[in-house]
Design goal:
By secondary structure, the protein is an alpha+beta fold. The protein has one domain. It is built from three helices and six strands. Strands 1-6-2-3-4-5 form a six-stranded antiparallel β-sheet, with helices on one face. Strand 2 and strand 3 form a beta hairpin.
Length: 144
């Protein structure tokens, strides 16, 4: 079943691979499925197994461009939830491993009905998160 976003409504997409959070986040923004977005990513030479997908922003930016989605050219340090734009990719669970930064991609969306973080992690009880006090973003990329 294909879940499409309706109007400003966005639906979470579950990552099908351990390191597929960037692909899943792009699928959310495109209103597409994980499989469809993975196919586009793979055609661009982007693979979930490549750790650069969650330690470098260029792969996600390239995939967003291919999906027709405009993103800000730079990352903005996270300040407060209220200061976020209505739609953004967030870097959470940011950490250094062997001198290289890693993070988990999630989608922040605010509309007239709700403010949520759509998290692709399979193990979560719910992938539509409102537990903002537990989510610790390092920075974000505004998405148009």
């Amino acid at each position: 079943m294909v879940k499409r976003s309706i109007g400003n409504q966005m639906n979470p997409v579950i990552q099908e691979e351990t390191s597929g959070c960037g692909i899943a986040a792009c699928a959310v923004l495109a209103g597409s499925t994980y499989a469809q977005t993975k196919e586009t990513a793979n055609a661009l030479g982007i693979y979930a197994e490549d750790t650069a997908l969650w330690s470098d922003t260029e792969y996600v930016r390239k995939l967003l461009r291919a999906l027709g989605i405009t993103a800000a050219p730079t990352e903005t340090p996270f300040d407060t939830w209220d200061s976020l734009p209505d739609k953004a990719l967030l870097a959470i669970k940011w950490r250094m491993e062997q001198g290289r930064p890693f993070w988990h991609w999630v989608v922040f969306v605010r509309n007239e009905r709700d403010t949520v973080v759509l998290d692709s992690k399979k193990a979560l009880k719910t992938n539509t998160r409102r537990d903002f006090g537990r989510i610790k973003p390092k920075w974000f990329i505004r998405v148009d």
